[in-house]
Write a structure and sequence with these properties.
heterotrimer; A alpha+beta; B alpha/beta; C alpha+beta; B: alpha/beta; TIM Barrel; eight-stranded mixed β-sheet; 5 helices; globular; C: alpha+beta; five-stranded antiparallel β-sheet; 2 helices; 5 strands
C-alpha cells in the first residue's frame, strides 16, 4: 500500500486548515450556503436528512490497520459508534456535526485519511478491484496507476469544476471485479502484441437516470501517456459537457450524443496537441511513486498446509472456507472476505468495536492491511493459509464470518430514505427483510450466487441496474413502490437488467423476490446454473408470469 | 468590484465599452467578442485593448489577435462553471499568451489558487473581503501535485530533486 | 419523496416550517416565537400559503442558523399533537426506521 511522505501529508494538513477557515466563514455569514455547499462537498460533507454525512476516501479500497483505528475513533467521538462502507470503496459517517467536522478531519489527516473530492463536480475516488495486487488473474497491480492518477487529479487547477462528478475505475485483472464499464472512464490493463502493458480506455459509463456502459475509445494506451490522455478526455468534457441540466451533465451523455467515434476523435485531436507537453510518465516519475508502495514480505510457504487440511474436517469451518476464502497469487496465502451482511442489520455497517478488532486482526494476520470492496464487505488480503482456522474463530467472534458472500443475503443497498435527502423510498428495510426471509444458509447455498442490488431513487447508488435482481424504490402518491429488474451484470460481460413489470408496493416487495427465486429453482437446468444465467437463457417472461399471475 | 492584480487591490485602468458605445481615447478598453470580430482594427490603437471572451467559445478563434491583445477577460458565470480554467490554460500554454488574463464573473477567494495556477493574473473579485484576503489566501497551499502554467512548487519535481541530492551528496561525518 | 425543496409553494392542509440546523444538521421546526426547535410538537402550524412564504423568506435570512427551510406537511392528532404528515417527515422527525448498530454500554 502507498505510504505518505511529508509532501502528501502537508497537502492534507493545508486542506484541513483551509476547510476550517471555510467553516468559520460560513458560521460568520461570510459565505452563503450556495457558496459553501460545493466547498464542503469537495471535502465529502453532505447535508442529509438528519445530520451531515461525511464520506472518507479509501483510495483504491486499501487501508492500513492504523487508519482503520482512526475510523473507529471518528465513529466513537464524532458519530454514533459506527460507519458504513460504500459501493465506491469509501466509508461514510451519517451523524456528523459541521461544527466538529474540521476536528474530525484533522484527526483523520494524521493518518493520511481525508474526504477530498469524495463529492462535488470533480474527479472522485479512483476505484479498483479489492483483490488488486493479490489476485491470481492480474496482469499487474492497478493501484500504482490509481495512485499516480489520484495525485495528478487532486486539486487540479483545470478540472476541479467539471459539469458533474467524475468517476474513474481501473482493473489489472482479466475478470472485472470493479464494474469498470460503469465508470466515466474505465481503464483495463492490457498486454499488446509486443508484450507491453498499457490501458484499454473506455469512456461514458454510469448508472442513474440514463444508464450507459462505457465504450472503448482507445484499445491500447501506453503507460507513459496515461496522464496526458486522461487530461485530454477531461478537457473535452470540461468544455463540452452540458451545464444546463443536472440530469444530462455526465460525460456519458456527451459520449452518447456525439457518438463514441466522434467523441474519440475529439479526444485524440486534443491529445495530439498535448501529449508531448511534459506530462509523459518517464520511468523516474513512476519509480518515485512506486517506491512508496509497500508490499508484504511474504514467507515461502506451501499451499494447503496441515493446519488447514485438518481444520477442513470441521463442517462449519469448511463452509466458511469455501465461501469466503479466495486463492492468492502467492502460494501458502489466501484472500479472506469479511462479510458485513448479518441477518437483520444494515449491510456494510461496521461498529467502532468491530473496526478496532479488524485492525488488530489485520496486524496479526494480514500485514496490517485491509481492503474495502464494492459490495460493502471488507477483505484481509494477505492471510497465511495456516492461520485460517484461528482467524476464522476470531472473525466469528466479531460477527464478520457469516458464509454468505456472493449469496442472496450479500445485498448491496444504498442508504435510501432512512438517511438520504435525495431518496424517494427506503432501501435498507427491504434488504433487511430479505436477509431475514432467506436466513437459512442451506437455502442460500442451494440458491447459489445471486446479487441483489437495492436503490432508493433513480440516482442508483445501490447499482440496481447491474444487479442480478435489481430493486428500485419509487414514490407513488406518498407510498413506496419498487420496480424490479432481472439479469443485470457488473463484470466484463456487463449488462443492464430488464424491468419485469409494474412496480410493487413496499409490503409485497420481498414476497415478489421470493417468488422470483422459487421460479428460478424450478426453472434452472442444473443446480449449478446460477440465477443470472437462467435469466439469460430463458428471458424474463417466466419470472414475469410468476410474479404478476396472481397480482 | 475590486480588481486584484500583482497580488493586491489596484484601481482598474480598463474601461468596459459596450458594443455600440464609442471607444474612449487614450484609455485601456475591454470590448466584447462581437465588437472585436466586427472591428478588428480597434487593435491598432495605441492604448491597450482587451476582449471579454465567452466561456463557451473556442480560444482558437482568438489566435490571430493574440499578439495585439493586452488583456483577455474570461468568464465564470458561477464559480462552479469551470470552463474558463481550460481556456486560460490553453491561452498560457498552447498559445503562450503573455498579456493580462483576467478572471471575471463570480470570483471568490476559494478559487484564487486554482485561477492563479490556470494562468490568471488579474481578478475582478466579487467580494471586498475576499479581495483583501488575497495575499493571505494564495499561501494556503505550499506545494502542488501537478505541474501547471505557474511556477509554484510541484511535489514530483521536489521529490526528484531531493532524491538526486541524497544520492550525490557524500555522507557527512559528525564534526 | 421528491425533495420538498424542489417543489413549488403550495399549501394543502397544515404545514410546519422545517429546516436543518446549520451547525449540526439536526432537523428543526420553527416555533410561533420565531425560534427553532427539534420538537415537532412545539412547532407553529401554518395553513396559509402567504404566511408560509413569508416565514420561508424570514428563514432564508437566518442563513447562519438554518439551511434549506421548506413547508412540511403535518397531521393534527385528535389530542392536538402534531404528527409528521408523510414518511419522509416521519423519518426526519424520528430517525431511521430500524435500530442503529448497537454499541456496548461500556465503550
Amino acid at each position: 500500500m502507498y505510504i505518505y511522505d511529508e509532501f502528501d501529508q502537508t497537502l492534507l494538513d493545508e486542506r484541513v486548515s483551509e476547510f476550517r477557515d471555510q467553516v468559520k466563514r460560513r458560521f460568520a455569514g461570510e459565505l452563503t450556503e450556495e457558496e459553501f455547499r460545493p466547498l464542503r462537498l469537495m471535502n465529502g460533507a453532505y447535508l442529509q436528512l438528519h445530520a451531515y454525512m461525511l464520506r472518507i476516501s479509501i483510495p483504491y479500497g486499501t487501508i492500513s490497520s492504523k487508519q482503520m483505528r482512526a475510523l473507529a475513533h471518528v465513529a466513537r467521538h464524532y458519530d454514533r459508534g459506527y460507519g458504513h462502507f460504500t459501493t465506491r470503496q469509501n466509508i461514510q459517517f451519517h451523524w456528523i456535526k459541521l461544527e466538529e467536522l474540521p476536528n474530525a478531519m484533522a484527526d483523520l489527516a494524521r493518518v493520511g485519511l481525508h474526504g477530498m473530492q469524495t463529492s462535488g463536480n470533480c474527479v472522485r475516488n479512483i476505484s479498483t478491484d479489492q483483490w488488486a495486487g493479490v489476485a491470481r488473474d492480474e496482469i499487474e497491480d492497478p493501484r500504482l496507476w490509481a495512485e499516480i492518477l489520484r495525485q495528478h487529479l487532486t486539486l487540479h487547477p483545470e478540472f476541479s469544476f467539471l459539469p458533474r462528478k467524475f468517476k474513474i475505475g481501473i482493473t489489472g485483472a482479466t475478470h472485472d471485479r470493479a464494474a469498470i464499464r460503469m465508470h466515466d472512464i474505465g481503464l483495463y490493463m492490457r498486454r499488446n502484441e509486443a508484450g507491453e502493458v498499457g490501458f484499454e480506455v473506455a469512456v461514458g459509463g454510469g448508472l442513474g437516470r440514463t444508464p450507459y456502459l462505457a465504450q472503448t475509445i482507445r484499445e491500447f494506451l501506453p503507460k507513459r501517456h496515461l496522464l496526458s490522455y486522461i487530461e485530454a478526455i477531461l478537457r473535452v468534457y470540461n468544455q463540452y459537457g452540458r451545464r444546463d441540466n443536472i440530469w444530462k451533465a455526465r460525460i456519458k451523455i456527451l459520449v452518447h450524443d456525439l457518438g463514441a467515434e466522434k467523441f474519440a476523435r475529439e479526444v485524440e485531436a486534443e491529445w495530439a496537441e498535448t501529449k508531448d507537453e511534459g506530462l509523459a510518465l518517464e520511468d523516474k516519475n513512476i519509480a518515485e511513486i512506486a517506491k512508496r508502495f509497500v508490499y508484504p514480505d511474504y514467507e515461502i510457504l506451501s499451499d494447503h498446509p496441515p493446519e488447514l487440511a485438518g481444520a477442513l474436517k470441521d463442517a462449519e469451518f469448511k463452509t466458511w472456507y469455501f465461501n469466503s476464502v479466495a486463492p492468492h497469487r502467492v502460494s501458502g496465502y489466501a484472500i479472506v472476505t469479511l462479510s458485513l451482511k448479518p441477518e437483520g442489520k444494515t449491510g456494510g455497517d461496521c461498529t467502532a468495536e468491530q473496526m478496532d478488532a479488524i485492525a488488530d486482526l489485520a496486524d496479526r494476520y494480514s500485514f496490517g492491511e485491509i481492503r474495502n470492496g464494492h459490495e460493502h464487505n471488507l477483505c484481509l488480503p494477505h492471510v497465511r493459509q495456516r492461520d485460517l482456522p484461528e482467524l476464522w474463530r476470531k472473525l466469528e467472534a466479531i460477527g464478520v464470518a457469516i458464509p454468505n458472500v456472493n449469496l442472496i443475503t450479500d445485498i448491496i443497498a444504498c442508504p435510501g430514505l432512512d438517511y438520504c435527502s435525495l431518496a424517494n423510498a427506503r432501501s435498507i428495510p427491504i434488504a433487511m427483510e430479505l436477509t431475514r426471509r432467506f436466513r437459512d444458509l442451506d437455502l442460500q447455498r442451494n440458491i447459489g450466487r445471486l446479487h441483489i442490488n437495492v436503490s432508493g431513487c433513480i440516482n442508483a447508488c445501490g447499482h440496481h441496474h447491474i444487479g442480478h435482481i435489481g430493486i428500485l424504490g419509487v414514490e407513488k402518491q406518498g407510498e413506496e413502490f419498487y420496480q424490479i429488474t432481472l439479469g443485470g451484470k457488473a463484470d466484463e460481460n456487463a449488462r443492464l437488467g430488464t424491468l419485469i413489470g409494474p412496480a410493487v408496493p413496499y409490503e409485497k416487495c420481498v414476497d415478489v423476490i421470493e417468488d422470483i427465486v422459487a421460479a428460478y429453482i424450478e426453472l434452472r437446468e442444473r443446480p449449478d446454473e446460477i440465477f443470472v444465467d437462467t435469466v439469460k437463457r430463458l428471458g424474463i417472461q417466466p419470472f414475469k408470469d410468476r410474479v404478476y399471475a396472481t397480482r | 468590484m475590486p480588481l486584484v492584480r500583482g497580488g493586491r487591490i489596484v484601481a482598474d485602468d480598463y474601461v468596459r465599452v459596450a458594443d455600440d458605445a464609442p471607444i474612449p481615447e487614450g484609455v485601456p478598453v475591454l470590448i466584447g467578442a462581437a465588437r472585436l470580430a466586427a472591428d478588428p482594427a480597434i487593435l491598432d490603437r495605441k492604448a491597450p485593448v482587451g476582449v471579454i471572451w465567452p466561456n463557451n467559445r473556442k480560444i482558437e478563434e482568438l489566435e490571430s489577435y493574440l499578439g495585439r491583445l493586452a488583456s483577455i477577460a474570461l468568464i465564470f458565470p458561477t464559480f462552479r462553471d469551470g470552463r474558463a480554467y481550460s481556456q486560460a490554460r490553453r491561452l498560457r500554454g498552447r498559445y503562450g499568451f503573455k498579456g493580462e488574463l483576467r478572471a471575471t464573473g463570480q470570483v471568490l477567494r476559494d478559487q484564487f489558487l486554482f485561477m492563479l495556477r490556470a494562468g490568471f493574473d488579474a481578478f475582478e473579485v466579487t467580494k471586498e473581503l475576499d479581495a483583501e484576503a488575497f495575499p493571505e489566501v494564495i499561501h494556503r497551499y505550499t506545494r502542488f501535485y501537478q505541474p501547471s502554467i505557474d511556477d509554484r512548487p510541484v511535489i514530483s519535481r521536489i521529490r526528484r530533486m531531493r532524491d538526486a541530492q541524497t544520492q550525490t551528496m557524500p555522507t557527512r561525518k559528525a564534526s | 419523496m421528491t425533495s420538498p425543496l424542489d417543489q413549488k409553494l403550495r399549501i394543502e392542509g397544515p404545514v410546519v416550517i422545517t429546516a436543518n440546523r446549520l451547525r449540526d444538521g439536526a432537523v428543526i421546526y420553527r416555533t410561533r416565537q420565531g425560534h427553532w426547535t427539534t420538537d415537532l410538537d412545539a412547532a407553529l402550524i401554518v395553513t396559509d400559503a402567504q404566511e408560509a412564504a413569508a416565514l420561508l423568506s424570514a428563514a432564508a435570512a437566518e442563513g447562519v442558523l438554518v439551511v434549506g427551510a421548506y413547508p412540511a406537511p403535518v397531521e393534527i392528532a385528535a389530542d392536538g399533537r402534531i404528527l409528521p404528515g408523510n414518511l419522509r417527515e416521519r423519518i426526519r422527525s424520528s430517525g431511521p426506521t430500524f435500530d442503529l448498530p448497537r454499541v456496548p454500554a461500556d465503550v
